């Protein structure tokens, strides 16, 4: 049986002040004027997998807001992590949930995120189907790699061997996972043609992931079966105790970098990580001066800027003579930064938090 696991527990701090603790970026309409990013993620994959097999892994804080925002999704499919951990523990919990519901060695899982921009839904589904088909037939950990379009320093990279490992699908063996590089290194990666961006999307049989975790990350892998039993028995305190003891490590560092059966399929669709405000340049239509605007905004003699007015009252935002700035206005807060510092908005959030300004977070 096919399952989709959508990771949706992030706080989206780089999109403050629009992104808030109880309404982070996955619950915002950033890549579409009508739908939230989570709604888009579900709509993209639902033609391949029935809604009852789509699981959302999130935080306790966000579980109810997601249930309220997604009434068509079974509430039991919105699963809160008992404690804040990294992606390895998150995916071990997903394995446990699936094992508790339908214990079957043929179960296969697609791991997606709620905060990516996908520019061609049909091509996306084609690639996902290819990856799932391969994962169903092989003891393989499959990831989706994005052909790089620029020397991006904000993404991890995947080095591939360049040869198709199978005639049945365009998969290549993964040689190495690389951390976010500096600009010169990123440029060399792109020019070589041997690297893809690491999208954070994965495809595998549940038992293949569990076996890999037991081999390379036993502190997490050996907890899957006890968690599945606790879930089946509705023993929430026991589940919380098991999960709370798991290490805080990513699936990349804990498993993917060490396993020998990791393969990659290159994506055939436009993709963006949507990591910070400057990503809107790549996803939204710009005016003749390369500005992106949203809401009640007037721009004059302004270029290369992003101006967002999310105030829900009568409040006009005007921009005069700006260049390469990001301006975001909400009811509670206004954020202005140079576009080159968009990744650092989370530092503003940290400063506000340490100063006790939680009411605007």
TrEMBL record:
Keywords: GTP-binding, Nucleotide-binding, Nucleotidyltransferase, Transferase. Residues 4-280 form the Nucleotidyl transferase domain. One of its GO terms (biological process) is GDP-mannose biosynthetic process. Residues 295-352 form the MannoseP isomerase/GMP-like beta-helix domain. GO terms for molecular function: GTP binding; mannose-1-phosphate guanylyltransferase (GTP) activity. Belongs to the mannose-6-phosphate isomerase type 2 family. This is mannose-1-phosphate guanylyltransferase. The lineage of its organism: Bacteria, Pseudomonadati, Candidatus Kapaibacteriota, Candidatus Kapaibacteriia, Candidatus Kapaibacteriales.
